[in-house]
């Protein structure tokens, strides 16, 4: 049995992660990528990082929900549509059943009793900070999924957060109001009386919650991460997240309706506990959809081992020469310079691994970033002044510390002599070859095609 199971697992691993000797048909390639995505998403959920960040968002939500809704309430009150907040909250906590109605009622009481006018400057500042902290926590979680180490500048974050908190509710309720007005038009009601059209409208009304949640998730995936997210991957993540959220709501509602043990065990705290569980599931589904969008845009991250991939020395050398030849070739041809996202797509290397090499090349002033958005990479000096041996030495020494370097590591004299011979052999083999020479040698090939093989 163990041998059969091991053989079956080996066949599965070869099918999913194996490198084909010949190009696969399009449908097989997409099926293989789909299996890899499912495997990686399952591993990410089991790994615990998404669950930890979902729990962190639950805690921040409990602290900021009243100030957040109070801020939206004050904005909507000026437009005379503040009465729509409670129906929207009821829709969100619908899986909780009657307990959700009680939660919404208590939150509405808190909002009505909160008087922003008597808070003062300090109180108003704390109110805004508490509301904005949730948006900041969401961005940090999505940046983690998208492997982005740095957040946006403070001014950019503040303007984006305020636009979401102040303009977002107006747009949402305006869209709902327009939809309700259209449905009340006499012509539309007459059309709904027709059998076929009426059934079609009923089907559309059932699908509307899925559509609204999908649009909301897609907007978050496009707008919040500090990265340029393409529309199609964001839409794929929005569809996956929206479907999962609606399905989880239905399952959770069935669970609540068929279980009365929580009230017997936790008494009056049962409502809060169930509300926190539903918040946790909602945030986890949001992060799950973000992961789907990320892997749809960056399939190069679909590798078997967990954690960030670490490049070997020869892979760093290969990647550094590929990067420099690509940049030098475009510079000499007068073509647009590549961005980080374009490097990732053309070379098929995860962003984190690519940045290690780019930082080393920038640190030795072989590359420089432009002020464009997103930044473009260009040679910081004439490619004819950059030796191939200099590039190789740069990536070999990347990451070395002063207290732990070849000079501080004692070695027997024969070892030093051998290493010197190897270095001299490398230098003599490429002599004074520059990046300009290397770029001109490969100018006959298409520089816009991936340097690495597709499945490497």
Automatic annotation (TrEMBL):
Gene3D superfamilies: Winged helix-like DNA-binding domain superfamily/Winged helix DNA-binding domain
Principal subcellular localisation of the protein: membrane
Keyword Transmembrane helix: yes
Keywords, alphabetical: Cell membrane, Membrane, Transmembrane, Transmembrane helix
Record's bilayer topology term: Multi-pass membrane protein
InterPro entries reported for this sequence: Virul_fac_BrkB, WH-like_DNA-bd_sf
Short name of one Pfam family: Virul_fac_BrkB
Transmembrane stretches, start-end: 57-82, 116-135, 161-183, 203-224, 231-257, 263-296
Gene Ontology CC annotation, any one: plasma membrane
Superkingdom of the organism of origin: Bacteria
Keyword Cell membrane: yes
Cellular location(s): Cell membrane
Entry protein name: Ribonuclease BN
């Amino acid at each position: 049995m163990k041998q059969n199971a091991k053989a079956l697992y080996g066949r599965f691993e070869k099918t999913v992660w194996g490198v084909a000797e010949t190009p696969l048909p399009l449908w097989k390639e997409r099926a293989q990528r789909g299996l890899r995505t499912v495997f990686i998403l399952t591993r990410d959920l089991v790994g615990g990082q998404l669950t930890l960040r979902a729990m962190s968002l639950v805690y921040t939500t409990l602290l900021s929900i009243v100030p957040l809704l109070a801020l939206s309430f004050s904005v909507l009150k000026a437009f005379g549509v503040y009465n729509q907040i409670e129906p929207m909250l009821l829709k969100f906590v619908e899986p909780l059943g009657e307990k959700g109605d009680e939660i919404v009622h208590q939150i509405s009481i808190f909002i009505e009793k909160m008087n922003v006018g008597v808070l003062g400057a300090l109180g108003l500042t704390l109110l805004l900070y508490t509301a904005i902290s949730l948006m900041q926590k969401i961005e940090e979680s999505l940046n983690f999924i998208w492997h982005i180490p740095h957040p946006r500048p403070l001014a950019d974050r503040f303007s984006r957060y305020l636009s979401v908190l102040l303009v977002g509710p107006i747009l949402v309720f305006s869209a709902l109001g327009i939809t309700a007005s259209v449905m009340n038009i006499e012509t539309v009601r007459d059309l709904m009386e027709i059998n076929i059209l009426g059934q079609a409208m009923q089907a559309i009304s059932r699908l509307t919650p899925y559509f609204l949640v999908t649009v909301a998730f897609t907007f978050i995936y496009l707008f919040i991460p500090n990265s340029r997210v393409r529309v199609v991957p964001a839409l794929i993540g929005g569809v996956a997240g929206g479907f999962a959220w609606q399905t989880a709501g239905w399952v959770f509602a069935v669970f609540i309706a068929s279980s009365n043990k929580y009230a017997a065990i936790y008494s009056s705290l049962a409502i809060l506990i169930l509300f926190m569980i539903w918040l946790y599931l909602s945030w986890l589904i949001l992060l799950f959809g973000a992961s789907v969008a990320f892997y749809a845009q960056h399939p190069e991250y679909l590798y078997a081992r967990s954690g960030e991939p670490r490049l070997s020395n020869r892979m760093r050398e290969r990647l550094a020469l590929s990067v420099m030849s690509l940049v030098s070739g475009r510079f000499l041809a007068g073509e647009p310079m590549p961005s980080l996202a374009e490097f990732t797509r053309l070379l098929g290397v995860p962003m984190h691994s690519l940045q290690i090499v780019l930082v080393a090349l920038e640190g030795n002033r072989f590359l420089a970033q432009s002020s464009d958005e997103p930044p473009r990479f260009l040679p910081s000096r004439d490619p004819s002044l950059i030796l191939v041996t200099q590039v190789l030495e740069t990536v070999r020494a990347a990451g070395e510390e002063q207290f732990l370097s070849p000079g501080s590591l004692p070695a027997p004299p024969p070892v030093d002599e051998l290493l010197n011979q190897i270095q001299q052999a490398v230098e003599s083999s490429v002599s004074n070859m520059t990046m300009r020479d290397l770029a001109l040698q490969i100018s006959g090939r298409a520089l816009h095609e991936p340097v690495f093989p597709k499945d490497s």
